[in-house]
Design goal:
Layout (H helix, E strand, L loop, with lengths): L2 E3 L2 E3 L6 E2 L3 H6 L4 H18 L4 E3 L3 E4 L2 E4 L5 E4 L2 E5 L4 E4 L11 H9 L3 E2 L3 E4 L7 H18 L5
Antiparallel strand pairs: 1-2, 3-4, 4-5, 5-8, 6-7, 8-9, 9-11, 10-11
Length: about 160
Amino acid sequence: MGLQLNGGIVAELKTQKNDADVEDFLNQVEHEGKREDSFKLLELMQQVTGLEPKMWGDSIIGFGQYHYRYATGHEGDAGLVGFSPRKQNLTLYLMGCYVNPGDKKYDKLFQRLGKHKLGKSCLYINKLSDVDLDVLKDLIKESFEDLKKFYPSSD
């Protein structure tokens, strides 16, 4: 069933929170090193957020939730922080890094992080041994806290 929007039907968002088992999903990651890193990242994000992980769609693990609405009218829900063990890399969703564009604290943290790539809204890491885990923990914490401030009704 599609969503109603301005009288028309649009495709339903694919990345919705669901009750799929996070550990079962991670145990299916084929590459042993990526699977081990994913469990470490799961533990790290749980520690930082104090929240239980939830599956979003069929491949994203998220912590918490916020509701966004763009100027275009597009809106939806997403995890406050999250990650996905993709074939090429670990993809971290740290949207809080982008809510205050002039804030230089993230630039400093990214400079100290280690080997990584940045996308429009994602942090890409090949393996956790490529980065400083203390800096990564700080990035997750700052992003989580900043996004909660930006979306005060988030959980």
